Amino acid sequence: MRLRLLGLSLCALGLLGLSAVPAAAAGSSGTSAAADPVVTNYDSQVRVERDGLLRVAETWKLSNVNGTFTRFIVTRDHLPDDIDHVQEIGDLQVKAGGQDKKTEVKTDGDVTSIAVSDISSGTAELDFSYTVKGAVAKVLDGTEVRFAPLTGINLPIQQANVVYSVPEVSHVSCFAGPIDSNIPCTLAQIGETSGPTFQQANLPPGNTVRMAVGFPTGQIAANSIVEYRHTFKRAFSTDAAQLITALAVLLLGAIALFALYRLRGRDQVDPRRVVPASLFSLGQDTRIDFTPPSDLRPGEVGTLIDERIDPVDVTATIIDLAVRGHLTIIEQEHSTEYSRPDWELRRVANAPSEELQRYENVLIRAIFGDADSVLVSELGRQVRANLEQVQDALYDGVVKRGWFSERPDRTRSLWATIGIATTVVGVIATVLLALLSTWGLLGIAITLVGVGLLIVGRYMPAKAPAAGRVLGQVAAIRGELLEMDVSELPTDQHAELCSRALPYAVVLGGSERWIDALVATDSTPDEEDEGFTWYRGPRGWHLQYLPDSLRNLTTNLTGALFAR
What we know:
The chain has helices at 2-19, 232-235, 240-265, 298-306, 311-323, 358-368, 380-400, 408-436, 440-457, 467-483, 494-508, 511-519, 546-562; strands at 38-48, 54-63, 67-74, 76-79, 83-86, 88-96, 99-100, 103-108, 111-119, 123-133, 136-139, 142-151, 157-165, 171-177, 187-190, 196-203, 208-216, 225-228, 280-282, 288-290, 327-331, 343-347, 373-375, 535-536. By secondary structure, it is an alpha+beta fold. The chain has 3 domains: 38-228, Immunoglobulin-like (Sandwich); 230-266 and 415-460; 267-405 and 462-562, no CATH class. The strands form 6 sheets. It has an 8-stranded mixed β-sheet, with no helix packed on it. Strands 11-12-17-14 form a 4-stranded antiparallel β-sheet, with no helix packed on it. Strands 23-22-21-24 form a 4-stranded mixed β-sheet, covered by helices on one side. Strand 1 and strand 2 (54-63) form a beta hairpin. It is rod-shaped and about 130 Å long. 36% of the residues are buried. Residues 1-34 have low confidence and may be disordered.
């Protein structure tokens, strides 16, 4: 297929050349009007040097050629495995009658053209001399010259003679016709007193004469110029060197990532350990006190577990602040059945004197600013502008408690930056290596290591030993929230204790059963309910609406705080 395509390109070049060589007597009368341009003789002497360089001397005898004469040489041969053998033409001289002629040399694809201008009509004789580098290839039993001096000439050639000046030869071959022809030349022989001789009579326009001369090992050095075609397969070569190197980089990268996680990212505690703990303890006068261990707050619990601040941690904190008496959540009346629900958050003037955590104070300031109340629908920009300060305070708080040696968000950010940088380097390396070499797989391996860093970086925040006991207590609290028989709580404290446990259940799971427990405190289901001290419903509201009300509240709070 390649040879046929090359043949088509040569024919096209031949037609272009032919258009520049008009018949000598196109506008005259008589018998000369029928004379066509032709190469009457082509004689060539090819000397093969020991280093493989060809020194070529040619004589072209032209008849009825006028204007520009162009001849072609195939200088690029496509071989399997994306390999090209290239021949370089050098030291070109063209003379006519002993005078130098002006030439124009161009290489287009697989063919080099040599155009000689100012050819006079009638009979002309051109002497070409040039060198060819890269024509000698290594073969199984020695070396071989592969040369096609006549290629795609746009004139018929009546007689072509080529004689080689070489040392001992092992074989010769010659083919004439189309570029991929296997028709033997008129003559191809090894002379007893001279070098290999080749002859071809009556070569039609556009045809080719190509020949091969073989040499035993050690006679003529191979000087093939090898170039590789740029293909996807070659750019990402799976040859042994490239494949082994890429796999080695991947293996070493995987080992480094594993070691990195073991040394820097692995928690220094056993998260499965359960330490006896409860949210409830027996107080004076047989009353039940709500006493979370280590004075844990819902936002801190969520941050400790997954090492990041989620929307649920902030919404649970707001509900917890309301339950503890620092603000009141008031559901607004619905103008229509399908109107969007809204809530007023109202600051409590005589709030309990307990000491708030820093992140809780920052959150309250972010919600209210200088006002005493705000609608959830209007929180938006004000809270989001200060949300980063809330997250900073919460992260600083878990570090201050000794649960982490450094802030988890900064640890993740550091390793994400390193992972992104490595991935970008890998992508750039992949592109450059694929364009300039066969080592594209190495770039992919580096990219995969960068992606691995991005993944491992998410788990790099490591819990300190001080977090071990707290995590064990959290595990016990989660079991209590999910399995405790809520009906065992004192009736007169039922609503209070269930309300206090609810924010923890929002973070740890089981919130539905604690909301249901609050709904169960409704002793008059047919009558309108006001709600609780921390959550008040609108006119006509019933406790049975509490699950939907809190679900909608959580959704709207999350949207107001975290929507972009």
